Amino acid sequence: xxxxxxxxxxxxxxxxxxxxxxxxxxxxxxxxxxxxxxxxxxxxxxxxxxxxxxxxxxxxxxxxxxxxxxxxxxxxxxxxxxxxxxxxxxxxxxxxxxxxxxxxxxxxxxxxxxxxxxxxxxxxxxxxxxxxxxxxxxxxxxxxxxxxxxxxxxxxxxxxxxxxxxxxxxxxxxxxxxxxxxxxxxxxxxxxxxxxxxxxxxxxxxxxxxxxxxxxxxxxxxxxxxxxxxxxxxxxxxxxxxxxxxxxxxxxxxxxxxxxxxxxxx
Length: 266
Known about the structure:
Strand order of the largest sheet: 3-2-4-1-5-6
Helix content: 40-55%
Number of domains: 1
């Protein structure tokens, strides 16, 4: 599924948040894979994701934040107890924001199956030396990882990595950082397609805005591997600012108070 961005902007501008949400959910209906972007520390973004999940009633939910072992630790009993689920997932040691923001997504999922698409740190480190093709494995070609990015996109992505690291990243590391992002995009796509095959869909993917973007994120790798699969992408902005990239729909929420991320690099 592809929606003209200008049309969505015109549609959403005069509407309240609830109406925008309802319209966006109706546009997502019918897609095989619904990718819901977020700023990881924004509770309103997670509330929107939970509302989408409740509306769509997916057969599977894929999380960027979880790996396969964590998903195996989920039990029906833990799903009804936020503290028990947080402990079962080992969330405190994960480095992700407060679990209370994510738990409503699990609650909204009902009987959906859960899938983890996190790239283990060891695998990400391996891609920096062995290369993204070897790190991903036998299906790297199917997802297009054996094809270099167009030079303008490679340059743009390296510039974004540098900016994201407050201009403190050695330039020689930038190509490897881009490769790690590609690895994560492709893994999310691979797991989403596995979930679609095993459960019949629709499948919801919970991930950051950067992975959700339709122009070079997860949708690109899904289309490369399975062009017959329809995809809907939601980006979530803050304080009226759109996240970079192309999305079928962009919704907006207030930005939470957060410290200057560049302080850690000083």
